[in-house]
Amino acid sequence: MKNFNLIDEKYIEDVHSKVSYYEHIKTKAKIVTLENNMDNLAFGIGFRTPPKDSSGVAHIIEHSVLGTSRKYKTREPFFDLVKGSPNTFLNAMTFPDKTIYPFSSKNKKDFYNLLDVYLDCVLYPGIYETDKIFKREGWHYELRDKNDPIIINGIVYNEMKGAYASEDEQVFDALNTSLFKGTTYGVDSGGNPQDIPNLTYEAFLNFHKTYYHPSNSYIYLSGNLNMEEALSFIDENYLSHFEYKKIDSQIKTREPINEIRQINFEYPALEISENKDYLGLAILTGKYDSAFDCIINQFLVELLLNTDASPLKNALYKKGLGLDVYGTNIDNYELAISIMAKYVDGNRKDEFLNTINETLEDLVKNGIDKDLLRATLNKFEFTIRNGGGANAQIYRFIWAMSRWLYDGSPFEGLNFSKEFKKLRNYIDGDFFEKYIEEKYLKNQDKVLLIAKPSTEKNKIIEEKLRKKLELYKNSLSEEEIENLINSTLSFDEFLSKEDSPEAKATMPKLSLDDISKDVEEIKRSVEIYKDSEILKHDQATNGITYANFYFDSSFIGNEDLFIYSVMDLLIGKLDTENYSYKDLDNEIYKVLGGFSTSPMVTLKNKSNDLIRKFLVSFPFLSDNVSDVFKIVEEIIYRTKFEDLKRIKDVLNEAKSKMEDDFISKGHLKASGLVSSYYNKVGKYNEIINGIEFYHNLCDLIENLDRDFEKIKLKIQKLYGEIFNSKNLIVNITCEEKYLEDLSPFKKFIDGLANKKISPVPFEFKEEAKNIAYTSSSDVNFVAKGYNYKAFSEDLDGSVAVLKNILSNEYLYNEIRAKGGAYGQGMLINDQGDMIALSYRDPQLSRTLKIYDEIPNYLRNLKMDKQDLINAIIGGSISYDPNLAPEDKGLVSGLRYIRGIDISEIKKKKAEALATNLEKLKSYADLIEKVMNKNYLGVIGNKNIIEENKNIFKNIKSLKK
What we know:
Number of domains: 4
CATH class of the largest domain: Alpha Beta
Shape: globular
Structural class: alpha+beta
Low-confidence stretches: none
Distance between the termini: 62 Å
Mean pLDDT: 96
Radius of gyration: 28 Å
Largest sheet: 8 strands, mixed
Helix content: 40-55%
Number of helices: 37
């Protein structure tokens, strides 16, 4: 390969690729290529970027470099690509010690367009030409009137305020920074909101100058590509224009400390109640000197803490040390594990430590259960081998980087079979016991954390910031205040300024002729078997069968839906007639890749009748089908709902996860809340999985000792009725040869009850509840919308283009770029939902006004020919998404259940491709009617919500 030295080359079965490792001769840039038959072409470039503080500089750079460059002169080339590219993945990510920029596309022309934009942006960004990109993406002062207080705004600033709204995030960060104090990992590369405003523009530029150079780069290519052509493009257009540069990007580490340190921490809370503390223990376990170091670190956390059979987790639960217990593996150059007990009395710290040590000592002395070792390894290996799904090409870049970044070979992160073989060979000896003794017991390099809730912490932080900004303002002369006002107004103009035709002309272009007009048809055959239907999908699943059983749940009425969802949380996690819940977990992972259940609801296509199913899913190695149904039958026939303590533990874990989701998925919870006011599917989902369910779950847990017998009987009744072969749909996805003999599936169906099902109508009454849920978060999730079907027939395929323009143009500019929110979007689906939403948003009333202005935006919409083509391309790809083989089976199955024919999807894509400006403008009246209904839901900051209390009918506390 011209201008590249080949360092190593081999075929790696785990990624089904010929993998080649090169070094660029001139710059010493490092490159790995994966040649395979995948039509999803992938690229990534990464840099080692060790931060020195928690100002978030690495994160802000990641956001900023994709906003204008040497060649591409629009304000934000990245979001132009989001709007107008048929990409299958487009993103950038900040890690504690690296920053990566990956993308993928099935369209070769698009791939090379993206390749050129990404490389130009990261190596020649426009951040040196203006500080406004830094201000928009990072932070800036705002002052529009001399009598107003100065405020701080910025996208990363608000993103991290949202991240720090999570109790778990704050507590883990405190534990992590203490363990790694004085090292690269002792700071938050994403940025602490209190530290972000300390970052100067000069330091920001210097960070880029230091680390963003080919000599510090890691480049990845994968897919059915001509690698010589791709590497020549990268060399001729970029790498060859640089000289080699010696860059000090070494990870700063520390010497081991032979003592346990204790830290006390406070996390913000709206109220204080008993047993709301956290106890955490972090252990530094070594360095990432080989792939095995990382694998064993991950494996033991899974084994000890993150399965239902995990001995450390169960020992802590047994003593009531935490309502939720979990472990985290920290897999940077310095390796560590953390053990967290959430919601416990912090005064029990000694008991917490003693329980951990005693449990580990017992495992060392008496040995780890071999079945547990094998089951955990099966689960662990299955997860990694199946990792990535449709984005497997992107995950492979991250895997390659895992050792590569620390001066190892990219092959190590891709050849994981070698490491799994080692683990398997160690099961019959005492390797794991000795490792635990050496790394967890004898090793005293540990930090013990006691975290307590505080109703004052946020107030103190807010007051400190208020005083700081007040002092800053008081230090300014009248002229400086006037300059700040002018700077703010100038920045507003920058954010509002549209790209010129000349700037737009610099962006790479596709035409509609470059886009496939077709939609992939997922082949499916249907076999009627007695009162059930079997859907068969022949897909290249690499020897894995994905089985989904859709049981009819239409007999469950409103009054039982909550208990139905509680039952779902418990199935597969309790004792059965033949196994304890711990042994059951081992048995599951001996033969399955997992076992899950889920209530689901959707609408029949066109008729809008409610479809209610109970989904049971489990993947397994296709050759092991004869062993599968024994354990499945054990779970669905013989679960015992008797152990009150265990049931409480499972429900508390579920409650904790839902509380985490309020932070990470708050926009979905807010939009689901709005949908529940007017849409029967939305209301159903709110009952079984929304905030309403969460509050009912909290009440159930609180009163479970009193009501247990009554609750148990209700669960047992539903459990005895749900597994019925009447109207059962079985969805199977695997290679063709395994579809030839489905006798094990049919035998399982034969064993099910076969009782007549009498559907119960779902009772639903529309009501504009307009609820706001308050939390200790500094940011908001704001949703507003209604059922467009109340005013219109089903929308044609042009609605995908409309969604693209509203989400990635109008709402992006107004909510994210100008408003400072981390995210925004327009949800429109075929079930009637039309909801505008925001994510980690510092605004509330302003955001609602932006939503209300959507109709006027559309009426005044102006787009040149290429803008419209871009919007069409970016929108139409939603009708033919990139899917992993197992996902194709799922999508096809759901289409069958809903009665959606492929011809309808092809028609919608054709309509999307034929969209014109007048069609887009015609949606203005419909959206105006939707917004005028004034159905809204908000999750967010208590003070901001109280300031706007007049727009809500109900204001409630989010957490209980």
